[in-house]
Each structure stands twice: as structure tokens, then as C-alpha cells.
Amino acid sequence: MADTVTRIDDESGTVSEPPRGGRGRRTALIALAVVVVAAVAVVGALGLGGGEDEGPSAPPRAGSLVPVTRATLTERTEVDGQLGYGTEIPLPVKATGTVTGLPEAGTTVERGDTLLRVDDRPVVLLYGSLPMYRDLGLTTAESGAGAESGAGAADGEAASGEGKPDGGTDDTAAAGPAATPTPTGAGTGAGAATVTELKGMDVLQFETNLAALGHTGFTVDETFTAKTADAVERWQKSLGMPETGTVGIGDVIYSAGKVRIGRPGVRLGEAVTENALTYTGTARKVVVNASAADASWAVRGTAVRVRLPDGRTVRGEVASVGRQASAPEGGSGEDGAEQGGATVPVTVTIKDQKSVGRLESGPVTVEYVGREAKDVLTVPVAALVALAEGGHGLETADGGFIAVKTGLFADGKVEVSGSAVRAGLKVRIPE
Length: 431
Fold this sequence. Notes:
Elements: E1 7-8, E2 15-16, H1 21-45, E3 65-67, E4 69-84, E5 89-90, E6 99-101, E7 108-109, E8 114-118, E9 121-127, E10 139-142, H2 153-161, H3 171-175, E11 179-183, E12 193-198, H4 201-212, H5 226-239, E13 252-255, E14 259-261, E15 278-280, E16 285-291, E17 303-307, E18 313-321, H6 333-338, E19 343-349, E20 362-380, E21 385-386, E22 392-396, E23 401-410, E24 413-417, E25 426-428
Parallel strand pairs: 9-13
Antiparallel strand pairs: 1-2, 3-25, 4-16, 4-20, 5-15, 6-8, 7-14, 8-9, 10-12, 11-12, 14-15, 16-19, 17-18, 17-20, 18-19, 20-24, 21-22, 22-23, 22-25, 23-24
């Protein structure tokens, strides 16, 4: 194709050729391009460009050198756990009769609240460690019927008291050390009534609860007195119970604190049993079935981290470790060994319950410290290079190599040691 284009003049109609300056402009552009290429070549020769081939004297790449630092490396191991409220335990229900009222599962019951109703009578929760093992109240007994004052008293003593000065029977002795007889009237031939006051730690435990519920007017001690009985009647009235002043063995159940109701073991209308109602604590915790062969980390008081299903991490602490190992579900012996071996239950408590949010149960991950190396020299794992003669080494800033011995790997770093390694030494991370 020709480079010259003819042009027709609009006014004269004559044909003219384009000016010759166009070819001169093209020549100037070609010359300029040659100059630019030459400049780029010079820049590359001076090492100012991004050439891929770097000679031995080329300076290190930015960010490729890191210092050897002293630090504490912590190796963390993860195990699976289950968040919940712990194992459900049967409440020691001692009432007898028909179940007429049950709480909903998950209900929190505190001191003074009704746990269940038996024969339409409330069974109340109180706080304490001593179980209810007897009725609490005053008992009244009559003295010997042959006791008289004045003439013939000696005969009455011989007939009914076998020489006892007060003509009484062995009721006082039978009461034992936990009861104190208190005479309430003089002997008049028909015998005097004796009121027995119970004594014991169970009395102190009950009176402490009674006072905490606001029913006072008595001395909180180990003696169940008439004033205690008056307070019991007021308490019974508040519960809609008959005001007897006596607490039956099945009227209350003790626990260490408030409880969370589990699954009931009976239904309404059925006879009450020992497993009628189960409970747990109200604090959420984690149970881990730890390998019995590798449970040295599970020591009471050990701090751990619990990762929740939503990814958040909360602090936990080992509270208890089971003493009896059990085979994994689905097998034992050789089969059990193939499935992971025997395990022991480890309970982890979470002090800050608010940190868990509203989550009540679900799978979690427990992280614990497996090994720890304190105040050791460390470098990023990426800085390690394999040496031709074997082992590992580090590349220094001047291109040399030094042999090192590796220790604990953790958090992307590795413990290193050797005669030529020191804190602050610059080493290269090879690409």
C-alpha cells in the first residue's frame, strides 16, 4: 500500500500532495524509542530494575531478613469436649406417696423453693451438706404412772421405778445424747410430761436455713427448742402445709446450693421413687473424655482455653479428673485400642459464665499446654534450611550458613540452639 495520499483542494478542485513533513515526524519517533530502550538497558545494568538474576553482591530483598529472638514457646494440644451442666444426679427424695407435682426440666430451684409435690405436699430445697435422716421437732413423753408425792411414795418407786428417786422410766436414757428431757409439770400421781429437745448438727443446719428464709425468733444453734417449733409453724403456714411444728424426713432435701432440674424419672400420678427427680449444678461446664494414656495435663487447677461452636474462646480450669478409666463406646480390648483406647472424664469449669453467652450445650474444643520452652532462642520456621551435610541451618545476611539444633515447634516458630546462634543475629528467610 502506498504511503502517499492525494488531496483534492475544495476551492480550486486541483489535486495536491500532502506535505513532506509527516515522514520526518515518524523518523523522530523511531529515534526517541531507541533512546528509551537504551535508557532501560542502562538502568538494568546498574541494578536499579527488577531483574530476576541477582549477583552475589546484590543487597537482600526487603523483609527477607529477621532477627533471632528470645521468647517462650508454648505447644498447645486440642481435645474434643462437650459443653453442658454436668452429669445429672438423682435427688435423695425420702417422701412417700403419689407424685402430684413436677417442675419442668431446666428449671432453677433455690433455697426455700418447691422441688416437687408428693400427696400434694411440697418437698422443699434447703442448703447444706448433711442429708435429712430423721424428723426434727419436739417430743413429749409421760413419766411413770406410779409416781406419787407424800405417803406411799416408796412403794411407788419400788413398783414402777425400781428404786429410782423420781419414779421415772428409762425414756431419758433411750433418748440418747442427742435429746434433752425437759419436765413440764410436777408429779401428781398421774405422772409428769417430759418434752425432749433434739440436739445435733442437723438441727443447726436446718435452723440456719430457717433463719435465712426470714423465719426467726429463736437461737440458731444445735438445739431444737419450743421457739424453733414456733418458727417451723410459721414456715409451714407460708407453704400451705399443716402447722405441726415438726419437720418430716421427707419434707426437705439438702443440696450444696441452687440446682437445675434434669429429666424426671416418674410421671404425675406415679408412686414416688428414689430416682423421681434428677438435678445438676446451675453453672455450665465442659466434660472431656481424655485419653488415659496421655492425661498428664489434666491436673486440678490447670488453666485451659475453651473454643465455643461460634469460634469464641473462653477461659477454663480443670476442676476434677475421674479415677476410673473406661473403654470407648462400641468396643473394648483390642477393638477399643483401635478406637482410641481407654479414657477418663475430665471436668472443666468456666468461671465467667457470662462469657459463654446463652449457649447451654454443644461440642467444644479444649486447648491445653502440652509442652513449654521458656526463654529460648527462636526464629520463624520458614527460616530453616536443609544443609547438604544433613540437619538444619540458618542463612546469615552475608550469604553464609550456620548449623543449628532445633527444639520445640510452636505458633509458627522453632527453638534453635548452636555455638554461632545469638539473639539479634540477622538470618534470611529463603524464598
